[in-house]
Amino acid sequence: MQVHIGSLTLRNPVLAASGTFGYGDECKELVDVNGLGGIVTKSLSLKPRDGNPPARIVETASGMLNSIGLANVGVDRFIAEKLPYLRTLSTAVIANIAASTVDEYCAVLSLLEAQEGIGAYEINVSCPNVKEGGLSFGTNVAMTAQITRRLRPLTKKPLILKLTPNVTNVGEFARAVEGEGADAVSLINTVVGMAVDARKKSPKLSTVTGGLSGPAIKPIALAKVYEASKAVKIPLIGIGGIMTAEDAVEFLLVGASAVQVGTANFIDPATGLTVATGMARWCEQQGVARVADLTGALEVSTEFSVLRTWL
Amino acid sequence: MQVHIGSLTLRNPVLAASGTFGYGDECKELVDVNGLGGIVTKSLSLKPRDGNPPARIVETASGMLNSIGLANVGVDRFIAEKLPYLRTLSTAVIANIAASTVDEYCAVLSLLEAQEGIGAYEINVSCPNVKEGGLSFGTNVAMTAQITRRLRPLTKKPLILKLTPNVTNVGEFARAVEGEGADAVSLINTVVGMAVDARKKSPKLSTVTGGLSGPAIKPIALAKVYEASKAVKIPLIGIGGIMTAEDAVEFLLVGASAVQVGTANFIDPATGLTVATGMARWCEQQGVARVADLTGALEVSTEFSVLRTWL
Amino acid sequence: MMILRAPVVSLRSVGPDMYVLSLHAPQIAANVLPAQFLNIKATDGSEPLLRRPFSVYRTQGENVEILFNIVGAGTRILSRLRPGDLVDILGPLGCPFSLESDFRTAVLVGGGLGVAPFPHATNALSRSSRQIRTFLGARSSPHILRDHLQNVSVATDDGSEGYHGTVVALVRNALESGSIDRPKIFGCGPEPMLRALARAAIDLGIPCEVSLESVMACGIGICQGCPVERTGGEKKYSLICNEGTVFDARTIKFS
Amino acid sequence: MMILRAPVVSLRSVGPDMYVLSLHAPQIAANVLPAQFLNIKATDGSEPLLRRPFSVYRTQGENVEILFNIVGAGTRILSRLRPGDLVDILGPLGCPFSLESDFRTAVLVGGGLGVAPFPHATNALSRSSRQIRTFLGARSSPHILRDHLQNVSVATDDGSEGYHGTVVALVRNALESGSIDRPKIFGCGPEPMLRALARAAIDLGIPCEVSLESVMACGIGICQGCPVERTGGEKKYSLICNEGTVFDARTIKFS
Ligand SMILES: Cc1cc2nc3c(=O)[nH]c(=O)nc-3n(C[C@H](O)[C@H](O)[C@H](O)COP(=O)(O)OP(=O)(O)OC[C@H]3O[C@@H](n4cnc5c(N)ncnc54)[C@H](O)[C@@H]3O)c2cc1C
Ligand SMILES: Cc1cc2nc3c(=O)[nH]c(=O)nc-3n(C[C@H](O)[C@H](O)[C@H](O)COP(=O)(O)OP(=O)(O)OC[C@H]3O[C@@H](n4cnc5c(N)ncnc54)[C@H](O)[C@@H]3O)c2cc1C
Ligand SMILES: Cc1cc2nc3c(=O)[nH]c(=O)nc-3n(C[C@H](O)[C@H](O)[C@H](O)COP(=O)(O)O)c2cc1C
Ligand SMILES: Cc1cc2nc3c(=O)[nH]c(=O)nc-3n(C[C@H](O)[C@H](O)[C@H](O)COP(=O)(O)O)c2cc1C
Ligand code: FES
Ligand code: FES
User: How many whole angstroms separate alpha carbon A170 and alpha carbon A231?
Assistant: First the structure.
């Protein structure tokens, strides 16, 4: 069940997605965390963040919107209070980094780089770029490339750029970060969405719009991963609406080397484990020798291999 | 319940969306078609189109993917066989036009312009641009503007540009077509998505990717309409996952003047009627004098009125 | 064609994961023709979103029955219905079998759940003076459903009942023996079976109608989601839901 | 804290659209503390997607009970459960009421369905030597649920039973009369009520704990989706699901 993301070896291809598994210690009563391929931490920012005012969460059809505001303990308290526990784990720990300037991304990574126990970095570029009036870094190819370029020299560990789906052409972003030396790309982050309280005539989230996740977005995520897989050679990590082992296999088939389970953790924090064991069983039943053989194994008849057709 | 889209008056704000209500005659046994605010026809192309091979449809969580391939009778047979029935209706008929070159858009519109009984045109720009290797017109601002510029002189009737959500910044597209004289913008068309048959290791749709519609995309559609409403002054028509009167009211609150019901027609072709009567009842109960008063009436506290924030 | 909410009369288990659901729907029971289908909404909510198509299995007075097996979420919900629950149905839909054409023996061929339209067809045929021969194929004996049929011959994949092999091989043998008087074949079942059946019918020069399946979004011709490729005609595709589900087997280009 | 599938023991209607659901969950029944809650998954599927939080109403031997009313899709599904059905529960969750602190009379104040945690709290309190006074508010008489409570006073919005007005006004009157010996208030109900209750407690210098609600995605502190604004502390927000649901009323910045 091993897979590789750059120099990092995962014992199985199933990670817990950033922001949906805390810092790993919250669920230890419920889950054998070491059964996961790895844990991606909540996004870490340079300073602690209180997060957005309520309401931060709205349920939608087969999905949910969130506007957490990247509430997190900040990198210093993470190092002091969370990392010691994470170091005791035998599974991979991936630190996810968020920031509102390029310098801040670099500062957080440098602080983490001085520590033991982190296997790789995942860079959340779906953050407001304060120098550009709050426009998300991740919707601008040049900015996304620049972040990668600045971070690359700071670490030898795998650098994973986490892409946003809220762009016309995600392949272009994947190509740009590959060009700057990223070891892998993970996608998708949440899809911009909104919910309205008709009676109150107001948005349901305090921030008006938020990020859509869950089964509702799985078809979008599969298409984005497929698109990215046509654009780059570096490993992809597929994310979006994964609830079952079969969902995870679908992401591998369209080109992912590993997957992350997000929203499903809120329903059952052990979802990652059941997905991982389910994939092992699935491979056995279907006669797949190594799970890595599934990556990109989708059979597409050449006649319709174009991404853009008449709908 | 009247609303206005350019010079066109709709008796109520609820239209049947293109491709989800045929040419209006298929459902007459089940629905009093004149109870709708209007009907948007299936996209009409210059020549008849057979459509894509099966499978054309896949169900997803609270949504569906389609890859119909714009199967339609073509503009000539539409005029000969479908328009006579549509002319007998007292509700508005909006002809939706699809094409793979700008000239073809013009040709179809000119043929229709010579006919009686069409109240407005809706231009489907989510079509592969053959001159650009099949890339969708609607993901390129300049192309979308050019189509509008070329069509505008050909008709005095309301020209509605139907935008695709598969772009980074839909406001930019709305602004561009407003600048070229479009009378209204309708959005959203379907979201690019994909489904995989894990056992068969193949895409579930013959065209690999397709268009996602239904309740799953409502949050995305609301955010896009809200974004467009901040960009332009022309009327907006909201589309995406509308099943109930409350859903429709939500679209009006974020800025739409009218709505279209799509996928819901497959479950019950009378959905448009129940939405329209439900909206009337809703307005009465909530003390809203005219349904048009709901347009843009969302109360957003200034503190969080920015579209882009930390999630 | 209408939409109505029909109360459940009964739900009975008739085999492994197989159920017959009886609904009180007099307007439909009075009119539905053999091989027509109903499009059923299993929930009030958006999951599953679309209706689910089912052939009419039988009519019993004012009730219509469907036969189904548990495949996924929609049929699981149906399997939990209780008498009195309301079920949202759209129907009757599709074109029926042509039982009026020129033949003496109706050869009904059902594979698996493809048996579903034949009890209703048998009932219609038994009001005429025609013969009926019924051929059923299934994985194994418990999956064979002989109720409300006539002159049934059986084929099973595992040989646990009747002929050990495919139902099409069994039908072919019977037809080749020449013992069936002026036959016309009516087939329903999985596509590979119908393809083989069409092949046999063409080989033997016997008229054959097949009822096809497809994923359907609407069931009434508005979504264009259910194409089948035709041979010869001006149009490449026909819609299974309203130009079918029944087609002359010779006109279908099986995949 | 654990996840388990508990069989339904019974579902009884206890008022207009109000139900008590009893589940066989010995591991939870043995440990759950007053004002803790369970996070319940109403379906196998993705609609509704998230769990639904419910206070523990009572424990009865190896069974735990919740009290709920029908609000939307999730509670509608719960209202259709039948004995033997399995329900997926995560719990017990949240911090309980501090029933051990220094007071003589527990003043339990419930608004609407906010009565839910008090039968279990009453049971715990009745094992100590403390007094209990219970104040319930509701729209009108049929919505008042007095079962398994002690010394109940009632307020209704429409005056159909007890005091005509808000339950907070009723409690304030009782507390101001001075007849309650060393009181501590425990409140649960809609936010406006809790805000008024907190105000009253502060005015009268009486200790007060409130159990808060919020939309919750996880219920266990991993989604950060359930903040409440605090006064004074270093952090602006606390999480209702695991730093609460019970808070000292003085520390909450009501909206
Ligand atoms: C005209 C027609 C008549 C039918 N008659 C019967 C019948 O009498 N008895 C019976 O048991 N089944 C019948 N089927 C198949 C039945 O519709 C499917 O088994 C059912 O839709 C499965 O739904 P589900 O939610 O349980 O499964 P899911 O696996 O959740 O379904 C997922 C999707 O696949 C579609 N789907 C799955 N299987 C089929 C299939 N075989 N054909 C078409 N779409 C499918 C569903 O509609 C849905 O969109 C018929 C199908 C058609 C088109
Ligand atoms: C700690 C806690 C304890 C609770 N205890 C009880 C109880 O004992 N009895 C009871 O009847 N109800 C209780 N509630 C409220 C209960 O969770 C909601 O009524 C229920 O989630 C509604 O779900 P639905 O699917 O029926 O409604 P929907 O309207 O479909 O719910 C839509 C969304 O809103 C959320 N929601 C709706 N109402 C509330 C609410 N009042 N509080 C929080 N989220 C809400 C749902 O979780 C869901 O995400 C409690 C809530 C919390 C947070
Ligand atoms: C409540 C919530 C919080 C999240 N927080 C973060 C975060 O801090 N950093 C990040 O990169 N992604 C974050 N995400 C995005 C997820 O990691 C994931 O990319 C997304 O939810 C899609 O996957 P899913 O559908 O499986 O949830 C968050 C998602 C949710 C629902
Ligand atoms: C089966 C199907 C066919 C469609 N055909 C067209 C079309 O021909 N032209 C067009 O502009 N939009 C077409 N659409 C898009 C719808 O008009 C609508 O924009 C979209 O489905 C979102 O709305 P909904 O979620 O209510 O379905 C089609 C949608 C579906 C589901
Ligand atoms: S199912 Fe919609 S056209 Fe056939
Ligand atoms: S509900 Fe997830 S943190 Fe409280």
Answer: 9
DSSP code string of B11-61: SSSEEEPTTSSTTSSTTTTT--GGGSSEEEPPPB-SS-B--PPSP-EEEET
Enzyme catalytic residues of B: 127
Ligand 2, pocket-test mutation among D20, D50, D52, D245, most atoms within 8 A of CB: D52
Question: pLDDT of D224-254, one tens digit each?
Answer: 999 999 997 778 999 999 999 999 999 999 9
Nearest Cα residue to C221 out of A308, B126, B247, B51: B51
Identify the CA nearest to B225 among candidates B184, B197, B263: B184
Pairing mode, if any, of strands A14-16 and A256-261? parallel
Averaged pLDDT, A5-23 = 96
In a domain, B60, yes or no: no
CB A282 within 8 A of CB A274: no
Q: How far apart are CA C54 and CA C23, in angstroms?
A: 13
How is residue A131 annotated by DSSP? G
Residue A265 lies in a domain: yes
| ∠ CA B212-B96-C243, rounded to 5° | 70
* Spatial distance between the Cα atoms of A244 and A264, rounded to a whole number of angstroms: 9
Cα C36 to ligand 1 centre (Å): 14
Amino acid at position B139, single letter: T
Distance, CA of D176 to CA of D173 (rounded, Å): 5
User: Which domain range does residue A7 map to?
Assistant: 3-52+69-193+213-310
Residues of B in contact with D46 (CB under 8 A): 61-62
ipTM over 0.90: yes
d(C-alpha B135, C-alpha B26), whole Å: 32
Would A249 be classed as within a structural domain? yes
CATH numeric code, D2-93 = 2.40.30.10
- Name the neighbours of C, counting chains with at least 3 Cβ pairs within 8 A: A, B, D
User: Can you list the positions of beta strands (E) in chain C?
Assistant: 2-15, 18-24, 37-41, 52-55, 58-60, 63-69, 86-93, 105-111, 131-138, 152-156, 163-164, 183-188, 208-211, 227-229, 237-239, 246-248
Give pLDDT tens digits for D46-68: 889 999 999 999 999 999 999 99
Residue of C nearest to B266 (CA): C218
> Per the structure, how many domains does chain B have?
1
The 10 Å CB-count burial string (b at 16+, else e) for A232-266 is bebbbbbbbbbbbbbbbbbbbbbbbbbbbbbbbbb
A293-304 residues labelled b (16+ CB within 10 A) or e (exposed): ebbbebeeeeeb
Kindly list the domain boundaries of chain C, sorted by start residue.
2-93
Per CB-CB distance under 8 Å, the chain A contacts of C46 are: 61-62
**Amino acid letter for position C209:** E
Q: What is the Cα–Cα distance from C33 to A243, expressed in whole angstroms?
A: 42
Q: Verify whether ligand 3 is closer than 6 Å to residue A239 (CB atom).
A: yes
Rounded to the nearest angstrom, the distance between the alpha carbon of B132 and the centre of ligand 5 is 32
Q: What is the CATH number of the domain that holds A242?
A: 3.20.20.70
Cβ < 6 A, ligand 6 pocket: D 216-219, 221-226, 239, 241
D229 vs A20: CB contact, 8 Å cut-off?
A: no
Q: Using CA atoms, how far apart are residues A164 and A125, in angstroms rounded to an integer?
A: 7
Which residues are paired to B280 by β-bridges? none
Q: How are the residues of chain A apportioned to helix, strand and coil, as percentages rounded to the nearest 5?
A: 35, 20, 40
The answer to the question of residue A64 being in a domain is: no
pLDDT in single tens digits along all 311 residues of chain B:
899 999 999 999 999 999 999 999 888 889 999 999 999 999 999 999 999 999 999 999 999 999 999 999 999 999 999 999 999 999 999 999 999 999 999 999 999 999 999 999 999 999 888 787 778 899 999 999 999 999 999 999 999 999 999 999 999 999 999 999 999 999 999 999 999 999 999 999 999 999 999 999 999 999 999 999 999 999 999 999 999 999 999 999 999 999 999 999 999 999 999 999 999 999 999 999 999 999 999 999 765 544 456 66
